[in-house]
Amino acid sequence: LRLLPQQRYLRAERAEVSALERKRNVLCCLITRILKVEKQLHIDSLVFRVIDACQKGELGPGLQFLSFCCHSVDVLSCVLHLLNQGYLRRQEGRPHVLEY
C-alpha cells in the first residue's frame, strides 16, 4: 500500500477559501462600524465608504489593516448577508436607506 502526498491544489484551494472568509469578515466589520456611527445611510454612500476604507487600510479610529482590493459586488454581498442575519435593516418606504 502506498500513500500519495496531499495534492497541492487542495492546499491552495483551502488558502483561497480562508482568504475569502477573512475578506468577508473585514467587510462586514467595516459595514457595521460605519453604520453604528451614521445610524442610517444610503446604500450607495455605504458602498463608497467601505471601498475607500479598504483602499486606505482603515478599519476605524485607531485601527488599521492591510489594504486590499474590494469591489461594490463584494460590499453588496456582505450587505445582503448582514440583512439576512438581522444586523441591518432597510427603512420602511425607503429601501435604499440602511439602518444598523
CATH class category label: Mainly Alpha
Q: What order do the strands of the largest sheet run in, or round the barrel if closed? A: 1-5-4
Described by its quaternary structure, the protein is single chain
Q: Major beta sheet, specifics?
A: 3 strands, antiparallel
Computed over alpha carbons, the radius of gyration is 17 Å
SSE topology string: HEHEEHEE
Arithmetic mean of pLDDT: 81
Protein name: CUL9 protein
Organism: Nyctibius grandis (Great potoo)
InterPro entries: Cullin, Cullin_neddylation_domain, WH-like_DNA-bd_sf, WH_DNA-bd_sf
Domain Cullin neddylation: 19-96
What would you say about this model in short?
With 100 residues, the chain is of the alpha+beta class. The chain has helices spanning 8-38, 43-56, 72-85; strands at 40-42, 58-60, 63-64, 89-91, 94-99. It is 59% helix and 17% strand.
Commentary on this structure:
- With 100 residues, the protein is α+β, with helices and mostly antiparallel strands.
- 59% of the residues lie in helices and 17% in strands.
- The chain contains 3 helices and 5 strands; from the N terminus they run αβαββαββ.
- The strands form 2 sheets. Strands 1-5-4 form a 3-stranded antiparallel β-sheet.
- Helix 1 packs across helix 2 and helix 1 crosses helix 3 (72-85).
- InterPro entries: Cullin, Cullin_neddylation_domain, WH-like_DNA-bd_sf, WH_DNA-bd_sf.
- Residues 19-96 form the Cullin neddylation domain.
